[in-house]
Amino acid sequence: MKGITQLQAGEPVSQFLLIKQATKGVTTVGKPFMTLILQDKSGDIEAKLWDTNDDHEKMYRPEVIVHIGGEIHDYRGKNQLRIKQIRIAKPEEGVGINDLLPSSTTPKEELFEELTQFFFEIKNPNISRITRYIIKKHQNELIVFPAASKNHHDYASGLLDHVVSMLRLGKSICDLYPSLNRDLIYAGVILHDVGKVKELTGPIATAYTVEGNLLGHISIMVDEIGQAAKELGIDGEEVVILKHIVLSHHGKEEWGSPKKPMIQEAEILHYIDNIDAKMNMLTRALDKTKPGEFTERLFPLDNRSFYKPNF
After folding, report:
1. Residue 269, helix vs strand vs coil
2. Which domains does the chain have, with CATH numbers?
3. pLDDT tens sequence across 259-296
4. Higher-confidence residue: 6 or 188?
5. Which long-range contacts (CB under 8 A, 24 or more apart) does 121-128 make?
6. Coil, strand or helix at 311
7. pLDDT digits (tens, 9 = 90+) for 104-151
8. Which of 67, 183, 287, 305 suits a disulfide with 124, CB 3.0-4.6 Å?
C-alpha cells in the first residue's frame, strides 16, 4: 500500500493513520470544524473534519490511531485529505503507533556512532569537554527526537539525522577552507539544536512544551552551555564563542536569532544548517513527485513549487 504522502490528487484513501495534531476552528458562518494533521511512515497530510462537536474533540486527539476513508484532493497547490469516513482503530486490528511513525531511514544507532567519531576530531579540551558533557546528558532524547514539529526532519530521530548530515557537510567545507576552526564548526553543529529536546515534546504527536514556547531552543541551549561550563569548572573565551554560535545560527533577527553571526564559523554554521534543512524538504517533496511534474507548494521555500525534470 502507498503511504499517505505518495498518493496523488483524485486517489482514494482507506487506511490507518495517526493523529499528529488536532486543532479546532470556526467557519465564517459560525460552524465548528477541526483541522487534523494525520501521518503514517511516509509523512503527514492535512485534513478537515466538518460539523464537529465536543465528542469529536475528545475522540480525535493527538496520538490516537484512526481509520480514514476518503480521497486526496488538491487545495491551493498542496495535497489535502478529504475525509468521508473516520473511526478510532480497534485494539484487535493490531495497528500500533510505531507502525505509523515516520523515522530516519538510517538506524539511530548508526547515526549516533557516526556523531561520536567527530568528538575525536575536536582538539580544544574545553570545547571537547563541554560538547561531550551536554551530549551525554541528553543522549537518550537526542537519538529519538525530531528536529521540528513540521517542515524539516520532523520525524523520529530527525534531530540526530540533521546533526550527522550537517557534520558531513561541515567536514567537506572545512577541507575546502582550512582557515575555519574545525573545533568550532563541529561543536557548533553538534550543539546548535540540542535545546529542541526541551523545546519539543518528543517524536509522537510532536508539539511545543511550555519551556519551548516561552524560551525556545536557542535560549535553552545557551543556558545549557553556561551550566555545563560551570559544572566542569571551565571559564574561558571558548564558552562565550560557543554561546555566540548557538545564539546566531538562524542568521538574522527576523529568523529567530538574538544575534547575527559575528565570527566566520558562526556564519558558516548558519549556511550549513540552512542547506541541510532545505535539502531535506526538497528531497522529500521530490521523492513523491513524478518526473515532468511540480512538487506541492513548499511554504518554508517562499511557497514555491519545484519542477522534477524527466531526465
Report:
1. helix
2. 11-99 (2.40.50.140), 108-284 (1.10.3210)
3. 899 999 999 999 999 999 999 999 989 988 889 999 98
4. 188
5. 121/182, 121/186, 122/182, 122/183, 122/186, 122/187, 123/182, 123/183, 124/183, 124/238, 126/229, 126/234, 126/236, 126/238, 126/239, 127/183, 127/184, 127/187, 127/238, 127/242, 128/183, 128/187
6. coil
7. 989 999 999 999 999 999 999 999 999 999 999 999 999 999 999 887
8. 183
